[in-house]
Design brief:
EC number: 2.6.1.83
Radius of gyration: 22 Å
Family: Belongs to the class-I pyridoxal-phosphate-dependent aminotransferase family. LL-diaminopimelate aminotransferase subfamily.
Helix content: 25-40%
Mean pLDDT: 96
Strand order of the largest sheet: 2-10-9-8-7-3-6
InterPro entries: Aminotransferase_I/II_large, DapL/ALD1, PyrdxlP-dep_Trfase, PyrdxlP-dep_Trfase_major, PyrdxlP-dep_Trfase_small
Subunit structure: Homodimer.
Oligomer: single chain
Enzyme class: transferase
Bound molecules: pyridoxal-5'-phosphate
Shape: globular
Length: 411
């Protein structure tokens, strides 16, 4: 008899996003004449840029000929891509990772979810709250999060980020083994300045904490003093793993490619505390066992975004989304709504008027305007009282959604 991993059972019935989809469906059925506009999705909508699709066509043609066909590639990624990453994403920022510190993957979700495998199940964890649910759920699955009560997991340190603290998480007053940071942030769309991020690196150095830094929205940063990589901070190479993804940067949500950086200086202790083990080595071992690499075509596609045309084209797409974000911020503020983020990230985090619970507000707005948002409570306890709006829609929809919301809010 096979026994289940009972930690998984703790997750069931708790999936807010399915619940939202059901409510939206029910609304569509009862209001067939209303055109629903979703500002709830966390997916891009603009097509891949020509530099990328041309590179993919070329790669497909190579696959079609015996002379240029490629089978299994290196598990950790082709050097042509790893070299382009180092040269374009890091060297201009004064950071120079070795090629074997870069692990090309099929997107950041898998690695942010799987990284916990190479550290003990009983490490304590910390997350800024609200947060991308993968960090917590993947820890629930191995028992590291503990048990749920009142919407909080017993072994998780929640660091609230709310309007009251200007969305700047407070550094814990005690040791935490592993801390997840996501900047620019999903869902709040807020960022940390260099000096604020430095406080986290200093904390990690002092407390021997492992930082897991998710920079999936790095390409959306507009302001100069916001770090794009945690390695721009001195000492981070000793304590931080960084996750990057082409999903939001270049519309790769359906192509699948990203990468993780694990500097060789990042180590974790054995239980007897007698030895320090390089996490780069463990992750390399883990990946060679469980992962056979990202498709050649996807890696050629990713390489193409670093070409001069590719860079220009993805910048245009990002500008398109960021124009939406600016328009939304302006319209919502004009309607007297309290909004955050949206300047260095494609997300707008809106306070629900009068402190309405986020699920209730989601439904009110859906029924009043036909616009879908995401209730903040789905991202953690401190998300209550907020909703997330994304700038990933097409601009006509985005403008119409703002008209509907401002007309409704004005009443
Ligand atoms: C979208 C997103 C990712 C990227 O996931 P992929 O698997 O690369 O598509 C990673 N982290 C956060 C916080 C995200 O919102």
């Amino acid at each position: 008899m096979a026994l289940v991993n009972e930690h998984y059972l703790k997750l069931s019935d708790n999936y807010l996003f399915e619940d939202i989809a059901k409510k939206v469906n029910a609304f569509r059925l009862s209001h067939p004449k209303v055109r629903v506009i979703s500002l709830g999705i966390g997916d891009v909508t603009r097509p891949l840029c020509p530099a990328v699709t041309e590179a993919m066509h070329r790669a497909v043609d190579e696959m079609a000929s015996a002379a240029t066909f490629r089978g299994y590639g290196p598990e950790h990624g082709y050097d042509f891509l790893r070299e382009a990453i180092v040269k374009n994403d890091f060297i201009p920022r004064g950071v120079r990772p070795d090629l074997d510190e870069i692990f090309v993957n099929d997107g950041a979700k898998s690695d942010t979810g799987n990284i916990g495998e190479i550290v003990r199940w009983d490490n304590s964890i910390g997350v800024t709250d609200p947060i991308y649910p993968v960090y917590i759920d993947s820890n629930v699955m191995c028992g590291r999060a503990g048990t749920l009560s009142d919407g909080r997991w017993s072994n998780v340190n929640y660091m609230p980020c709310t309007a009251e603290n200007n969305f700047i998480p407070q550094i814990p007053d005690h040791r935490v083994d592993m801390i997840y940071l996501c900047y620019p942030n999903n869902p709040t769309g807020t960022v940390l300045s260099k000096s604020e991020l430095r406080r986290w690196v200093d904390y990690a150095l002092e407390n021997d904490t492992l930082l897991l830094f998710d920079a999936a929205y790095e390409a959306y940063i507009q302001d100069d003093d916001i770090p794009h990589s945690i390695y721009e901070i001195k000492g981070a190479r000793k304590v931080a793993i960084e996750f990057r993804s082409y999903s939001k940067t270049a519309g790769f949500t359906g192509v699948r490619c990203g990468y993780t950086v694990i500097p060789k200086e990042v180590t974790a202790a054995t239980l007897d505390n007698k030895r320090r083990i390089e996490l780069n080595r463990l992750w390399s071992r883990r990946q060679s066992t469980k992962f056979n690499g990202t498709s050649y075509i996807s890696q050629r596609a990713a390489e193409a975004i670093y070409s001069p045309e590719g860079k220009k084209q993805i910048r245009e797409t990002i500008a398109y989304y960021m124009d939406n974000a600016a328009y939304m911020l302006n319209a919502l503020k004009g309607a007297g709504l309290e909004v955050y983020g949206g300047r260095n990230a494609p997300y707008i985090w809106m306070k629900t008027p009068g402190g309405t619970p986020s699920r209730k507000f989601f439904e009110q707005m859906l029924y009043a305007t036909g616009v879908v948002c995401t209730p903040g409570a789905g991202f953690g306890p401190s998300g209550e009282g907020y909703v997330r709006l994304t700038a990933f829609g097409n601009s006509e929809d985005c403008h119409e959604a703002m008209e509907r919301i401002t007309a409704w809010a004005g009443n």
